[in-house]
Amino acid sequence: MIVDGRAIAEDIYAELEAACGKVLRQARLGIVVCGDDPVIHSFVRIKERSASRLGVEVVREDVPRSATTDDLIAATKRVAGAAEAVIVQLPLPPHVDTEAALRAIPKEKDADAINPALSEEERLVHAPVALAILEILRRSNVEIRGKRTVVVGKGRLVGTPAALLLRRHGTHVKVVTRSEGSLDDISDADIVVLGAGNPGFVTPQMIKKDAAIIDAGTSESGGKVVGDADPACAEKAALFTPVPGGVGPVAVAMIFKNLCALAEAAK
Fold first, then answer.
1. Residue 235 host element (H or E)
2. pTM confidence score
3. Cα–Cα distance for residue pair 162/153, rounded to 1 Å
4. N or C: which end of the chain has fewer CB within 10 A?
5. Residue 194 located in a structural domain
6. 61 bridge partner residues
């Protein structure tokens, strides 16, 4: 089955409007954007469109690519002062200390649950991509407890939070990176979560028949956004999320689920 992430996102928006529409219409989402990369700006526009449909005001601050770490920290603090939840759009330029910039996000306003200083006790929400992965598996009736799961990649947006949340829900998780684990582990996995940003590197020959392939890896190839899995994997997998149109739309919807939770907690 090829997952229609846009349809799942539509269902989530309808549920959000019914359950916490009033809260969302009174809430503000802050977004800090650095530079003029068209791919980054396209991701921000998607979030802005979703905010608009839910009646959420977006407080956006753009800083030039030449901005320093201190500039990013200052912008984040300004946005945080005017919003109930904050996103610092990644990636930041190489000269910026990303960890320092993310630490400027108030923990109680961290829509991406990405502040490196955030402890489990302080966590009010989970990373949107990790939540999206669980939501897709749940709505697709995939039993995850006790299943062998391989998470490829250990990034702050996909791999690390996905492994954390999947373990919490009872899966046996192996993490594979360039320096940890082996891609051979994929062949025995019931669930494969991809977040490496390596176009099409997972082929049908590498996966188990009827595995669930959750592709949250995104990169640009030939002017298009593509995933980590060869689309031909869909023919062998029991469940397959395409890129684009799979995990991405659901993850954006989860940002607004987090916004609702953070706004409620702040009351």
1. none
2. 0.95
3. 10
4. C
5. yes
6. 32
Task: Check whether residue 99 and residue 190 sit in a common domain.
Answer: no
Q: Which residues contact 104 (CB under 8 A, 6 or more apart)?
A: 72, 73, 76, 77, 80, 88
Q: What is residue 59's three-state secondary structure?
A: strand
Please report, for the domain that includes residue 225, its CATH number: 3.40.50.720
Within 13 A of 118's CA, how many CA atoms are on the CB side?
A: 25
pLDDT digits (tens, 9 = 90+) for 36-60: 998 899 999 999 999 999 999 999 9
Which parts of the chain sit beneath pLDDT 70? none
Residue 221's domain spans which residues? 128-248
Q: What are the beta bridge partners of residue 226?
A: 219
Q: Which residues have a Cβ under 8 Å from the Cβ of 27 and sit 6 or more positions away?
A: 56, 57, 83, 84, 85, 259, 260, 263
Count of domains in the chain?
A: 2
Task: Give me the count of residues in the chain.
Answer: 267
Sign for the pseudo-dihedral over CA of 162, 163, 167, 168: negative
State whether 133 and 211 are in the same domain.
yes
